[in-house]
Prior knowledge:
Blueprint: H1 12-18, H2 26-34, E1 38-42, H3 49-60, H4 84-87, E2 95-99, H5 108-125, H6 135-145, H7 157-169, E3 173-178, H8 182-190, H9 193-209, E4 214-221, E5 237-240, H10 255-264, H11 271-278, E6 281-283, E7 286-288, H12 291-303, H13 320-327, H14 331-341, E8 346-349, H15 363-372, E9 377-384, E10 387-393, H16 397-417, H17 421-428, H18 432-445, H19 454-465, E11 472-475, E12 478-479, E13 482-483, E14 486-489, E15 496-504, H20 511-524, H21 529-533, E16 538-547, E17 550-555
Parallel strand pairs: 1-4, 1-5, 2-3, 3-4, 15-16
Antiparallel strand pairs: 6-7, 8-10, 9-10, 11-14, 12-13, 14-15, 16-17
Helix pairs in contact: 7-9, 8-9, 13-16, 17-18
Amino acid sequence: MTKPLPIGIEDFKELIENYYYVDKTLFIKELLDNRSKVSLFTRPRRFGKTLQLSMLKYFFEIGHGSDCDNSRLFKGLKIMDAGHSYTRHLCQYPVISISLKSAKQPDYEKAFIMLKRQIAEEFRRHRYVSEGLEGNDKIRFDLIMNETDQSVQYLDALAFLSRLLNAYYEKKVIILLDEYDVPLENAYFKGFYDKMTDFIRSLFESALKTNPYLEFAVITGCLRISKESIFTGLNNLDIVSIMNRNYAEYFGFTQEEVEGLLDVYRVGGKRKEAREWYDGYLFGRTEVYNPWSVINYVKEVSADDEAFPKPYWANTSSNSIVRVLIEHADNSVRQEMENLLEGGTIEKPVHEDITYDEVYKSENNLWNFLFFTGYLKKLSERFDGETIYLILAIPNTEIKTIYRNTVLDWFGERVRKKDFSELYHAILNRETKVIERELSKNLMETISFYDYKEDYYHGFVAGLLKMLDGYTIKSNREGGLGRSDLLLLSAPYEGKAVIMELKVAESLAQLNDSAQKALQQIKDKQYGAELILDGYQDFIYYGIAFYKKLCRVTVE
């Protein structure tokens, strides 16, 4: 019987014992081969960082009170065939493992409480080391473990615990820190960035820079934070971002792994959909799929072969940065966004060292943030002087859908806040030049997609008209010999109806002809016939043609 798929399972032991596992254990081999004192891995959210740290914890951690039995978890996995020089490290080190992802709180005090709880929980997990303690060490251990100290004891708590574990086992300590940038990102958006930066810097410096009891440390996050802000003076830091070629296949699923997964769950026929929707990320030179989305998609289509792909990642990874880019976009940024949504590319200089308080200071920082957080992919790169330039594109259909939905949400909110009374008056009074001006002006202020196809303009005009008081808007209603694009209908007793037919011109020169053809179509196909039966007598017919962000309007 096929094992269940591990949606949301981040504990390696639970996953191995109960769920399907895509074997990433050779990550351990590469980590040992490189022997970096402190390694920082940055990858987008939901690309397996937490699970990888959990795997490291189960592999390296020495057992307490009895022989370590974690070797059984790795039975049959690739790391066990790597040789004795790697397997000899199994269950040989004390491990400190902390996740910072819970520090998403509205103010510093609450965020600090959550960090304090995580640290205290790790002290409770190692409470056995306190049994032989005396004096200040015993007092301090109890203060931290019981969460009774307000702040000062936590500033170098991980270094303190390292010393105690080293004394207990007579072995150096491995430190694992997951989602280190979550409290920093949250603090920036909530307005206490400086306070949180000071605390994280102190915690990290004592544990990673001046800690003689450290064997090695592995840190994960979404964004590479500037050394000057957090890792001051930490010269032994090896930063592995999505630009690096090493470790590339250990976060996300490779093509071979996805095909194996689809075959195991008997949905091999879904290769094309999976690739179009969830593939396209380039880490170093390795192309990978979004693992979170692939697992969700496979689970759904294995239960229902007719299930459609969905943007599963949209609900788990904050897309506020996309919204910010759209809200603050000038004309050049809007053009670049439209180019991306049409399948094109943009070229931007890459800046790997970013602090959260610098993200919004320039458009290039915003584009870089989108790249490193998974909303853009690298197609190629070039080196010019001292700067690396990246050719960037949208990775796949899932991310394109997130962009489009964000644009639509922003556009809907903008319509609700803006005064369109001049446009509405012009429509009800046959003022074609005013209608042309208002539609073109609003097209220039928004972001287009669907390659300027009729569907896009249809949604755009419908969005503008939905706030017209006293009228209801109907789309593609059956009537006469076909469907009109848009209807604006008063209450039946008033008897007023506006019928609109939209066309897309192939060139600027064809705008007038396309508008006339749209108007003629309304009459030829008698779109008003059914409305007469409903009591409507006062009709306005509009033929509207678009070419990119220009329009022409004809009326009868």
